[in-house]
TrEMBL record:
Residues 127-221 form the Trafficking protein particle complex subunit 13 C-terminal domain. Transmembrane segments: none annotated. Residues 3-114 form the Trafficking protein particle complex subunit 13 middle domain. The gene is Trappc13. InterPro entries: TRAPPC13, TRAPPC13_C, TRAPPC13_M. GO terms for cellular component: TRAPPIII protein complex. This is TPC13 protein. It comes from Podilymbus podiceps.
Length: 229
């Protein structure tokens, strides 16, 4: 649902002796910034998820996780970042139990380009928990990923549990290629539990084409008595 790319790398020691993992890093491509997700914050200090021991025993495997986010100048260009498949390369440095150093650098790693279609709808803000039958607000971002200008109309369709507040069939106006608009919407749920936000429809009046958006996000609905207690 976002332009973030999560990369999981599994590294296994296939030798017969332990090895010291000196460095495992991801060098992102020019369009991305990277954040390593292999540490936890304990008492204000960053600690490796693998603990203080950085040794990898024979046939043991570790999983390293990285999050890549598009740089600001590319994130605003939906059509550009959509087609990017190269995300970066892994740099792995280790030492054997005899002190011999080894290094492996992969070729450029590829990802599957996401299929956004012509119009992409993503959720910017939504509360985690809401009260039963009480209105709450969400913010959506609509992006024109096509190469043509669209004239959009928004329709809101109620489901068994989700009810939209406001006028359906609202004109959103023209949206140029690679441009976005933010939309504040109000809804309420008539059913408790984890509910899926569904029922948004966007129609391009130029081509008479309708795009359906269901299961956009989930929200936990509780009774007001439970939330206040």
């Amino acid at each position: 649902q976002t332009d973030e790319v999560f990369l999981e790398a599994q590294i296994q020691n296939i030798t017969t002796s332990p090895m010291f993992m000196e460095k495992v890093s991801l060098e992102p491509s020019m369009m991305y910034n990277v954040a390593e997700l292999n540490t936890v914050d304990k008492a204000g200090e960053s600690e490796s998820t693998f603990g203080s021991r950085t040794y990898l025993q024979p046939m043991d495997t570790r999983q390293y996780l990285y999050c890549l986010k598009p740089k600001q100048e590319f994130a605003e260009k939906a059509g550009v970042i959509k087609g990017v498949t190269v995300i970066g390369k892994l740099d792995i440095v280790w030492k054997t139990n005899l002190g011999e150093r080894g290094r492996l650098q992969t070729s450029q790693l590829q990802r599957m380009a996401p299929g956004y279609g012509d119009v992409r709808l993503s959720l910017e803000t939504i509360p985690d928990t809401v009260n039963l039958e009480e209105p709450f607000d969400i913010t959506c971002k609509i992006t024109n990923c096509s190469e043509r200008t669209m004239d959009l109309v928004l329709e809101m369709c109620n489901t068994n549990s989700i009810h939209w507040c406001g006028v359906s069939g609202r004109q959103l106006g023209k949206l140029h290629p690679s441009s976005s608009l933010h939309l504040a919407l109000t809804l309420l749920s008539s059913v408790q539990g984890l509910q899926s936000v569904s029922g948004l429809r966007l129609t391009d009046t130029f081509l008479k084409r309708t795009y359906e958006y269901d299961d956009i996000a989930q929200v936990c609905v509780v009774s007001s008595e439970v939330k206040q207690s």
